[in-house]
Design a protein that fits this description.
2 copies of one chain form a homodimer. By secondary structure, chain A is α/β, with parallel strands linked by helices. Chain A contains 10 helices and 10 strands. Chain A has helices at 20-29, 47-56, 75-95, 114-135, 158-165, 179-182, 188-195, 229-238, 259-273, 284-295; strands at 8-11, 34-38, 60-68, 99-103, 138-141, 173-178, 199-204, 206-207, 219-220, 245-247. In chain A, the strands form 2 sheets. An 8-stranded parallel beta barrel of chain A has the order 1-2-3-4-5-6-7-10, surrounded by 7 helices.
Chain lengths: 296, 296
Amino acid sequence: MTAGPERLSINRASIRQWSVRELVEACAARSVGGVGLWRDDVEGVKAAAVGAQVRDAGLVVTSLCRGGFVTDPDPAERVRRHDDNRRALDEAAALGTDVLVFVAGGMAGSGTDLAGARARVVEAVAELVPDALARGVRVAVEPLHPMFCSDRCVISTLDQALDLADPFPVEAVGVVVDAYHVWWDPGVTAAIDRAGARIAAFQVCDWVTPLPEGVLTGRGLMGDGAIALPALRETVEAAGYTGPIEVEIFNDRWRGRPGDELLDLMVRRYRTHVLDETPDGPTQRSEAAWTARTTT
Amino acid sequence: MTAGPERLSINRASIRQWSVRELVEACAARSVGGVGLWRDDVEGVKAAAVGAQVRDAGLVVTSLCRGGFVTDPDPAERVRRHDDNRRALDEAAALGTDVLVFVAGGMAGSGTDLAGARARVVEAVAELVPDALARGVRVAVEPLHPMFCSDRCVISTLDQALDLADPFPVEAVGVVVDAYHVWWDPGVTAAIDRAGARIAAFQVCDWVTPLPEGVLTGRGLMGDGAIALPALRETVEAAGYTGPIEVEIFNDRWRGRPGDELLDLMVRRYRTHVLDETPDGPTQRSEAAWTARTTT
């Protein structure tokens, strides 16, 4: 596999203090290969123009976050969601990425009927398959950590995402392997092996505790937590995935830091704690001290 | 199955404003059949005397919380934990319960070596088996929700707990089915069926969001959340379990409420949202209003 930051992609949510333009320029200056964007990054502007801007800087758009939220049983809401997900596929195609990250949605409107909510996800994905094929964009189903099952995503394991994907062409429905969501799963190695060519994206960060209220913005920097990221990366590679490695960190504590400082740190930690290279910049000790200041 | 509160047990952590004596008397007055106790309830007093007090009131001790925390690789710490777990088995026997709830422990001292931490749990359980058999107390392995994997319990699913229990006699190693920890698991119905006679305890509460900081004290009252408790109870019963149903709720917001009010509410919610009886007391609407005041 390539060493250096060429495979690295920075998800826009990781450094929200920057505009897309600032992010792209800073990444290009460091040979970071890609960026992951969100739908609000193309709201009110032409997605194709944003895509061209990224490509002109020599980068690629590695994913668009996100489609999904298809669990509500209300028929009118289901139509609205389907239409919106088709628009998301359009935006991904216009941006020039073939990965639409798809988060199923929680139990909205489903009461305690988890099985029903999960069945509605299967239906909704099936309905999107023709659109995905027509646009050359994959619906990349992302299992979210089980702590999000009721409020964000009823697809809780990689195996469950693969069961969902199985009936559909691999170019229409893929899966996202996000270290934060799957690291705890005793079946994750077998599931990644099973996933093979279904793997549409690989995202990294780290698991740190205590979790904050609401648990959404507790993602840690690679190397600060419990996840054996090099082993997970090797498993993903052994399954045949050679695509981008995207850093996605939601952490409110970082909002006040300069973007350059965060990006440099992400690049270093990617090299030391994802690629498992020997540190060549600041020592681990000084990085740990920096992080303690930054994240606590 | 028996209707009414005879199968109901109240875990002491659910109403911590009461002493054991107050809890036992209040439960007896309502025909609640049992209580689940903690090790600090017998600290400095004779466990046998506490057990006699419970039995004299016509109740049973349904479980002792808890043994475990056996993931640390340090040899001296492992010896200390083993000795302490043997003492916990002694205390359970003296109390007159045959269920020692066993929480594996998180990744303490294990760095990112999750597989190693899990392997140490297997070793530690194996070492306890002769002691468990000698005392007639089961090591009841409790899988905890994956959000606790790094800091409390590396055993994250019921299937994983069963894999751990499989090599050992069913009277030595059982499992705990706690609705809060397992409800999200797409394989939970099959796992409960597989568990059969391994089920040593069944605990209930509900899953409510947003989770509080640290996520430990966010357990909700039955009926307030996302868990289909009657279906889960029926699955457990179909697997052959006819033992106590223990309410275990950690929720700091309740500390200031009168114990009688909480216990009455738990009994009602047990009947309406676990046994699935028609409400015969306050209407659902008024209970919801009460809960809104109480839990938010």
